[in-house]
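Bench log. Compound arrived from synthesis this morning; before running ITC I wanted a structural hypothesis for how iron/sulfur cluster sits in the protein. Inputs:
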Amino acid sequence: MIPVVEKFISINGEGTRSGELAAFIRLRGCNLSCSYCDTAWANDNNAPCKFYSAQELADWAESSGVLNVTITGGEPLLCGEIGELCMALAQKGLRAEIETNGSLPVSGLANEEYRPCFTLDYKLPSSGMYESFCADNIDFLQKNDTIKFVCGTEEDLDTAAEVIERYSLCDKCYVYFSPVFGQIKAERIVEFMKEKGLNRVRLQLQIHKYIWDPDKRGV
Ligand code: SF4
């Protein structure tokens, strides 16, 4: 059974489907502990949750009438039934997206017929989780996937630019910069992109934090 701390309908706040309606399924537990985590309440292995089968979650998503399904956390790849869930969603013609912290291999899902689209974080120094990225994941990226750099400092920006170049990331997938909310000005990120000539990198703000209270859950 799959431990779900919350599920709700809202709009995607980030990623290539930003602004589109999505059914969110947030799973319990995370293997990292980032300095800026805004879902720490969901990461504790004892956090209150409900258990569902993959089929029950797919039925719920289908009944919502929403096409996009965002599976998030915590860290969804910790869930042993994540493949079953993706398959159940695909069988209903729903568009599954997994938001992962990038530290665990995506290979188990990446070659399947029911492959979801991935948004992978690349953790930068200010997260406190730098060097957690599973480099093998680069080999499994496809054009519709996203690598996201959440930047809070100048060091983060420099590191992100170096990683983008090292792996030619912009040739492989979408690449996003996103500011740590309240820590670095989006304006500074734009300046940095101009200084470095970062064509094909996109700045993205977490729009749900501008629409609702930044600490509000279930949105
Ligand atoms: S990986 Fe995501 S959920 Fe886990 S601690 Fe970091 S920000 Fe929070």
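What the model suggests: The chain has a mean pLDDT of 95. Residues 2-211 form a domain with the TIM Barrel fold (CATH 3.20.20.70).
ITC booked for Thursday regardless.
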